[in-house]
Amino acid sequence: MPLKKDFLWGGAVAANQCEGAYLEDGKGLSLVDLLPAGKERWEALMEPKKALTTTYSHYPSHESIDFYHRYKEDIKLFAEMGFKVFRLSISWPRIFPNGDETEPNEKGLAFYDNVFDECAKYGIEPLVTINHFDTPLGLVKDYGGWRNRKLIDFYVKFAETVLHRYKGKVKYWLTFNEINMILHIPFFGAGLILEDGENHDQVKYQAAHYQLVASSLATKIAKEVDPQIQIGCMLAAGEIYPYTCHPNDMLKAVKENQSQYFFIDVQSRGYYPSYAERLFKELGVSLEMEEGDRDILKRHTVDFISFSYYSSRLTSADPEVNNAQKSGNAIMTLRNPHLDATDWGWQIDPIGLRVTMNQLWDRYQKPLFIVENGMGAVDELNENNTVDDDYRIEYMRDHLEQMIEAVEDGVELMGYTSWGCIDLVSAGSGEMKKRYGFIYVDRDNEGRGTNERYKKKSFNWYKQVIESNGEKL
């Protein structure tokens, strides 16, 4: 079997999608707490001024699935499946409610102490994302989000606080979730509200520079706190294929893949890639850097590359062809005629995972970690209080087979955490009916339900996968 004996099997969630308790025990508002569900959510994400000024009927993050009060029950279920690792995030405004306080919120810190202690009880390693799409709303309103260099200091204080607090409890850390999403959903990724008339590329790449510096400083602090800490970056990945074998399509795919890898090039290699100079020139971007920024990036690179994978993408150099693009996990893509798609239009491409893994390994030669992968689907609870989700089992089996093939190819892989191991609020649509979990949560799109947990058929299937270290799929 190609997987290591200590391969880290598990699942992943995010604080803003599962915790609820949005104002409990001193927590402040995050930008996600202003977002509604359904079609209104996407409008608010793309035009965030609406989110700041509109009162909506339902805010999914306010209660979510109430992990805040039910974490013991949930972690026990994860342990029953055999999790070796549990990926979660720390809510920034739960620790610093406005983001710029001098002292952290002790009740927020204590909550995560309790969560990590519960994980330790079952021998589960936490994998913690420092910032997962929940910049404090105060930093957006008072400072303009990550367009302001001051956010480096606020983020570093947050990172320093949690890295010191949880020394010995958390070995694996990620600095930013899907850092390249700043280019596609800048409000999510960096709390940016783009103004008419300004160069949006300038704003996004300048904010990205500040995040990259902040990431390197967090990496520096982590190693000072405990040299044994493993700290990684995180990419929203998925190889971009050319639409045809025409050389222009091939070149377009190369360029779009470069824009995707741009952030990881800096975090892994420690410097801006050679293609950045031309990219910035063509976009009219001129980065403002302080003396020492380049040295910080160079000296403090990540230990491993983590990434989410849901689908590959497709692009054409022909503008008329590209007019047929549709959204696929927030990134526009053409429809690939060789692939099926989920109910939400995300194309299903298990071989694309193997392709992506090989590309990342060849490019960086650093260990990889798949920290998100899964299938959002409409699940129906049956009379036996379970879900016959054979479609999810098939999806995951096909992807795990290709993951193992990539390891056979020579890719070094640390672990795999399926996305939404328990049903939670969708980041993109705010829906509950878009379910990913092995555990069904009785909650609907309007926030109605008991929040009771029920094991799906995939629960025992994944338990078997972990027990056999991937030999029984």
List key phrases describing it.
two-stranded parallel ribbon, 6-phospho-beta-glucosidase, 17 helices, 473 residues, TIM Barrel, glycosidase, 14 strands, alpha/beta
Layout of secondary structure:
Layout: E1 8-12, H1 15-18, H2 39-46, H3 48-53, H4 67-81, E2 85-89, H5 92-95, H6 106-121, E3 125-131, H7 137-143, H8 150-165, E4 172-176, H9 186-190, H10 200-225, E5 230-237, E6 240-242, H11 247-269, H12 276-283, H13 293-299, E7 304-309, E8 313-315, H14 319-322, E9 326-328, E10 331-333, H15 350-364, E11 368-372, H16 390-408, E12 413-419, E13 439-441, E14 453-455, H17 457-467
Parallel strand pairs: 1-2, 1-12, 2-3, 3-4, 4-5, 5-7, 6-8, 7-11, 11-12
Antiparallel strand pairs: 9-10, 13-14
Helix pairs in contact: 4-6, 8-10, 10-13, 15-16
Family: Belongs to the glycosyl hydrolase 1 family.
InterPro entries: GH (IPR017853), GH_1_N_CS (IPR033132), Glyco_hydro_1 (IPR001360), Glyco_hydro_1_AS (IPR018120)
Pfam families: Glyco_hydro_1
3D architecture notes:
Its EC number is 3.2.1.86. With 473 residues, the protein is an alpha/beta fold. It has a single domain (8-467), classed as Glycosidases (TIM Barrel, Alpha-Beta Barrel), CATH 3.20.20.80. It is built from 17 helices and 14 strands. The chain has helices at 15-18, 39-46, 48-53, 67-81, 92-95, 106-121, 137-143, 150-165, 186-190, 200-225, 247-269, 276-283, 293-299, 319-322, 350-364, 390-408, 457-467, and strands spanning 8-12, 85-89, 125-131, 172-176, 230-237, 240-242, 304-309, 313-315, 326-328, 331-333, 368-372, 413-419, 439-441, 453-455. The protein has an 8-stranded parallel barrel with strand order 1-2-3-4-5-7-11-12, surrounded by 5 helices. A two-stranded parallel ribbon has the order 6-8. A two-stranded antiparallel ribbon has the order 9-10. Helix 4 (67-81) runs parallel beside helix 6 and helix 15 packs parallel to helix 16 (390-408). The chain is globular and about 60 Å long. The chain starts with 7 loop residues before the first strand and ends in a 6-residue tail after the last helix. The mean pLDDT is 95.
